[in-house]
Amino acid sequence: MLNKTSATLMLQTIMVLMEKQNSTGVTNFPSTFYEDAELERCYNPYGCFSKGYPWTEHRPDNYFPVSPESLGVRYAVFTRRNRKIPVLLQAKDTAKIRNANLDSRGPFYFISHGFLEGGHKHWIQNMADALLNLQGNNAATVVVVDWRRGSQPPYGQAVANIRLVGAMTAFLIHNIYDVLRLSDLDNFHFIGHSLGAHLGGYCGHTLQKKFSLKLGRITGLDPAAPYFSNTVTLVRLDRSDASYVDIIHSNAMPLYFSGFGISEPIGHVDFYPNGGSIQPGCKNDAPTYQDMDNDMYKQVVRYVSCNHERSYELFTESVAPSCPFMAIQCKSYEAFLEGNCTTCDHKHLCVPIGLHSQSSYKQLQNGGLVDSNNNIALYSLTGSVKPFCRVHYEVTLKVSNSTESRIHGPDVGRVSITLVDRNNNKSDHKFLNDEQKYYKPGDLDKKLIPFKDTGHPPLSVIVEWKYETNLLNPMTWRLLKSSSIYIEYIKFTSIEYNTIITVCPKLKKPVVTNLPTVMKTKYCVFAK
Fold first, then answer.
1. 308 among known catalytic residues
2. Largest CA distance in the chain
3. Catalytic residue among 151, 189, 205, 222
4. What would the pLDDT profile of 126-167 be if each residue is shown by its tens digit?
5. How far is the C-alpha of 117 from the C-alpha of 322, rounded, in Å?
6. Catalytic annotation, pick one of 112, 151, 194, 380
7. What's the whole-model pTM score?
8. Is residue 404 within 8 Å of 486, Cβ to Cβ?
9. 238 is in an annotated binding site
10. Is 258 labeled as catalytic in the residue annotation?
């Protein structure tokens, strides 16, 4: 395990390597010999920023935010009337806000990037387009918080800068509130990735402290962990910063494993898709010293960014998802994978990931099932490519203990499953196990499996037995008869559809290797 110093060095190294792929140059901010003697620096009218406790905790270095002029923050406003060329606002310029022709009906979305990024990134435009395209969002306004000049290395300086950018954004929101004569900020939703998530927290905190206003919602997309883990709530985003705070964790691993996302639950609702650390489709192997050539930085960027970026990809997809995008409350990710949480009830609350989570949370709140002072941790499985949304089935397979099955004896292979709904739409095929498994008569096998949604629960299932001979494993040798498996039944318990369906093979026939077998409920004949 790396110590604190080497972990910090790794972070800085990775950050500098990542910076090489950005077109923007590194901003060198001025410093003086007496800077460390200061304990507080003020930028009127945004307030004063301390370098004392708690801003020194769990941080190897500590900076003041640079001046608003050096930051050069731009607020790019998009609506359905101006999707391509934004109106540019400034935090203190109320005249521009009046002339921006903002629709007071809202909703208002604020999107912030993180370290080494800017408001010009494609993912931000994709998210803005998705929000503007959402049915019923005719009056929506999307404001991109572009603080790219302040997001450059060193990382500690960028961490300090978001304190001021958050305060500036709070002043802008307050001015919009005044100009449009709004009654509250319930219709304001701040969406921030990585450092941008904590920036949203500072914005929400400033609105409450300076103006006695509370943001309706903050969504943290894999909030940054370095300099924020295990800190007090003042230093990081937490659920007191808005009426509703939801978090999508996608890269929650220790820094020495190249994890950049915070792991602890910090919102009203914390989603941990695929456990919240490593996402399917992202390369899991870290670059080695043998890989250190001219393309090393590209390998590092590819390794560290995929999991971290998945959070905003999931959120963008959640705006208009291809399936329910459901996550379920469970004691742990391991308990979730074991199939201990497959029914949505008062013990295992279900909330969709992303944009539409707030409406579900309010329903649970109205029903007295959640307490806004506590956190709910929810888990889900996704696909490895777009669309990521999947539906969850706890699949239970029972190997027959019939005379024919016992005569055939144990066999080694993999069971492949394809769901078929009432419209004959087929899901993707999924294996019950990643590797070949030794199945004996009477065995029971259970697995939680994510399938592509067909729109309806399955009515039948196509089952295949995949068998491969291994010369080193005598269990796989089949010289005189075909490899096969006698399946008594397969039961599917759906989280999304809240259904249980059991299918069986016709006439109790075996599933023979590489020969698809259709199983249906009507083929099941159980002894009474």
1. yes
2. 87
3. 222
4. 999 999 999 999 999 999 999 999 999 999 999 999 999 999
5. 29
6. 194
7. 0.89
8. yes
9. yes
10. no
